[in-house]
Design a protein that fits this description.
Elements (H helix, E strand, L loop, with lengths): L1 H19 L7 E7 L4 H15 L4 E7 L4 H13 L4 E4 L8 H9 L4 E4 L10 E5 L1 H15 L4 E7 L5 H14 L5 E8 L4 H14 L7 E4 L2 H11 L9 E3 L10 H6 L6 E3 L4 H12 L7 E4 L2 E3 L4 H76 L3 H7 L10 H22 L8 H7 L4 H12 L3 H19 L4 H7 L5 H12 L5 H4 L1
Parallel strand pairs: 1-2, 1-3, 3-4, 4-5, 5-11, 6-7, 6-8, 8-9
Antiparallel strand pairs: 10-12
Helix pairs in contact: 1-11, 2-10, 3-4, 5-6, 7-8, 12-13, 14-15
Length: 512
Amino acid sequence: MREKLLFISCLLVLLVSVMSCTSSKPRYVIGISQCSEDIWRDKQNAELKMGAYFHDNVELKFAAAYDSDERQVQQIDSLVATGIDLLIVAPNQVSTISPAIDRAYDKGIPVIVFERKTSSQKYTAFISADNYEMGHVMGEYIASRLGGKGNVLEIKGLEGSSPAIERHNGFMDAIKGYPGIKVVGSLQGDWTETTANERTKQWLDNNKDVHVDLVFGANDRTAMGARKAFSPLTSYPTPLYCGIDGLPGKDGGIQLVRDSLLDASYIYPTHGDQIIDLAIKILEGKPYEKETMMMSALVTRDNAKVLLMESEEIMRQAAHLDQLHQTADSYLHELDTQRMVNWLAVGIIALLVIVFVLFYLYHLRKIALQRERVVNTLWNMDVEKHETATPSNPTSPPSKESEDAEPVSAFITRFKEVVESRLADSDISVEDLAADMNLSRVQLYRKVKNLTGSSPVELLRTARLNRAYQLLLTTDKSVSEVAYDVGFTAPSYFTKCFKEEFGMLPGDVRQN
């Protein structure tokens, strides 16, 4: 009966929530940890939002670490603490962010690592383009562009990040086959134009007599930073500049190639919508690929104009879709507000019904607690009660009441001794208890039920929980150890029973 009433109350709560809420609670909350913030990630974040538009009840939470390992670790832990359902992360460096990723994964949160790799193996899926292949293709292009002979200045990406490592390795492996290509300098950058500009100026000050035919930047911004360092040197032969990212739009790599500011770039796809699709597959338990490599392509003056036109059209359509989505959100918000007003009266009535049901359940629980106290009182009967039931004058003849009380007390005392001697035995059954009492299973059940109102199994559980309470108070054993000591086979079930019996968790006993 109590379970039915509880079920009804839950239905009423759900009904009120559906009718009165201004907007439904998101079904999935996805945390996105970006290692930095730049035009490449701005484009990707826009695509992530666009991808979420095509899935109902998806909320995105963004965080940008601005190339700080410590900040990204804190942000990941903070996202996890808010209760996200899935984490999407671009690690700032290979190893430094791994502990935070491990903590999220160990809490059962699926993790998608994208664009940059991690030393951790605790991730659900990885999605990126092939950075080694990009570096290798650019190396082949540069060697061909220079006719197999010339001096190249390289500016690498952020030290310790997987794209920087793999692009450098791919580039160096490619030019090994061209002995006429010489790398005259390999400068450590951090993906930013400012740092690349500063490092290039320093190198030029120390290498005034070294001629550079081509500058290879780990991304387009570093290549442009180097270009700005070379520009004031009017007496210096103008080198060629190559980068990687190939973004569309104003000042993107494709436009820079079209306008001959860069000789070549390489499209590093953002594909935020594809990442969201992967996340939803994981959350909904659908099949997915653990490792996904996205397609990319070389951008030269031959194809830059066409690629830019196509990209700009896609961006225009995306902006239009985003505007439509915002308009629809505004309309739905107004509609939900009207619904809230219309259903407010119904919600109040439903709440009154819930209050009544909960009040009734409270009284049922109160009766149940009184019954449990009676059971515990009977269970704690011992020899003292037996002695109390015996007349104080041994010479006087025993009364009828004392004759009836003596076997009852003796039976309870004996049953208590049998149960307590077998508490640690998780396989004990009613048949075993009956055998120890020299009774049949049916006899034991009927007698215990008639005397206490509870079954032998219920009294066995009560005894185990009482013993567990004492062990928690008087020993330093863990909750799991106590659970096994009193015959429970699963600490989780023990915790559930303990909470039902005492209204608190086992771990709260020592604190209180």
